[in-house]
Write a structure and sequence with these properties.
Length: 457
């Protein structure tokens, strides 16, 4: 960090310590102070949200904030607040803005990366299972990605796979070395044990997002018999040690009613989850099961349910597709995040397996300036209705155009997938979702123009 950034960080850390003394009385005072400090309005949306939360002492959001003080280890809470709020959002946000202006390219808030393709499960419809344990980025490569990212303002790192905790020793080493970063992993949780939980408690800057597909029947259907019981055991360990965790839920044609049910949400809150990240199934890879794609009515159901629970439940919820309206559409291609697979291919999104750059041959910054990511920058948003944000699932033809114009290649080494064939798998779902999404958009945005058809078929 520069001297100016270090001084800002020191001051903000003092503020967080002040919060710990009496959060009820001091949070409003601190928000007023942070608002004055944030002259460029980088954190305005977050500040306004927190102000609304603390104004309603009986509300679900206030209960969630309070639970971070009653349920989470104090050292872990302080470290995650420092790394997530100060480094990743405020200091990192300023640095990202500067980097974008200097380089005229997207600079991400977060980097999603796969330490390994290895996984101890074989989930139905998962592309990762194709690769086995043959692909890995070594510790030095992962470390280099983080060092490069921080220079550009990225302090949030998310692991996927494969099963990232197959490499949990290296993950802990990276948490130790980059103690100023926030780390999260999408994990099946079956490798979380007492030792790893103790390591989490020690490093204080790692949070798991546990993949769970519903209750036992739904989870074991996709992930294998006994998986749900292993997940519950991991949650019990984390809750007992006052460690934060969330859940990652993939809703499909088979489990949407369960994942969207109040019974399921309440059960996850009771088990200790503080956040829930919702995804819809994508038919990527040769083992994809297009029949698992959620129907348009199921996606509408999740749109309504997640918004309903946000007004009722002490759980922070994110919907990767249906929340596009809050962030002006697609966040991929480095606009807010990107994906680096276990082979080092730098992809615009975890669900878009095409690339024109590999981290072993290039820098992050060069990847951001290369044709594929610049195509994303040029074309985003892909639809003025941000409930149709995705260039693949919602706007077939837009991804095809960008991949072909950039010269990007399929990163599936086992079974390279032609981008036109992939897009074809989504055309029916996109056509059925479009009229429903347009009606939902009109409900919340009035007569605003809400549809842009693809010009690249």
């Amino acid at each position: 960090m520069s001297m100016a950034e270090s001084l800002k960080s020191y001051g903000l850390k003092k503020v967080l310590a002040y919060l710990d003394e009496d959060p009820d009385s001091n949070i409003p005072k601190v928000l007023d102070w942070v608002e004055k400090f944030d002259k460029n309005k980088v954190a305005k949306r977050q500040i306004d949200s927190v102000k609304n939360v603390i104004a309603d002492k009986d509300g679900n959001w206030y209960k969630l904030v309070k639970s971070l003080y009653t349920d989470i280890d104090a050292g872990v809470r302080r470290t995650m607040f420092e790394n997530f709020i100060i480094n990743a959002t405020i200091i990192g946000g300023h640095r990202q803005k500067k980097s974008r202006e200097e380089n005229n390219c997207n600079i991400p808030w977060a980097i999603l990366m796969d330490p390994t393709s290895a996984c101890n499960l074989h989930c139905t419809g998962c592309w990762a299972a194709e690769y086995g344990n043959r692909l890995n980025m070594d510790l030095e490569t992962l470390d280099s990605i983080i060092q490069q990212g921080k220079k550009l303002g990225t302090y949030m790192y998310i692991y996927s796979g494969g099963e990232p905790l197959v490499r949990k020793d290296d993950i802990i080493k990276l948490c130790e070395k980059h103690s100023d970063c926030a780390f999260l992993a999408f994990t099946n949780a079956t490798l979380i044990d007492e030792k790893f939980a103790n390591d989490m408690l020690r490093v204080k800057n790692f949070v798991p997002a546990i993949s769970v597909e519903g209750f036992e029947e739904e989870t074991d259907f996709r992930r294998g018999k006994g998986t749900y019981k292993s997940i519950v055991m991991a949650m019990d360990i984390l809750k007992e040690k006052n460690l934060p965790f969330g859940i990652s839920c993939c809703y499909t044609s088979k489990n949407t009613d369960v994942i969207g049910s109040e019974e399921y949400i309440d059960d996850m809150i009771e088990k200790g989850a503080k956040f829930a990240w919702f995804f819809t199934y994508m038919p990527v890879g040769k083992d994809a099961v297009p029949e698992l794609l959620a129907t348009a009515d199921q996606r509408k159901f999740m749109y309504r349910k997640i918004r309903e629970y946000r007004s009722m439940k002490p759980l922070f919820t994110l919907d990767f597709w249906n929340d596009g309206e809050y962030i002006s559409g697609c966040i991929a291609g480095g606009r807010c995040y990107l994906h680096i697979n276990a082979n080092g291919d730098i992809e615009p999104c975890a669900f878009i397996h095409y690339s024109d750059t590999n981290i072993h041959d290039s820098t992050l910054l060069q990847a951001y300036k290369n044709p594929l990511f610049m195509q994303y920058k040029k074309n985003q948003p892909f639809n003025q209705n941000h409930l149709r944000p995705c260039p693949l699932l919602d706007n077939p033809g837009r991804l095809t155009s960008m991949v072909e114009r950039s010269g990007a290649r399929s990163t599936d080494m086992q079974n390279p997938e032609d981008v036109r064939d992939l897009s074809d798998k989504c055309k029916s779902a996109a056509a059925k979702w479009a009229p429903i999404a347009d009606r939902l958009w009109e409900e919340s945005h009035g007569l605003e123009k809400c549809s842009v058809e693809s010009s690249a078929k």
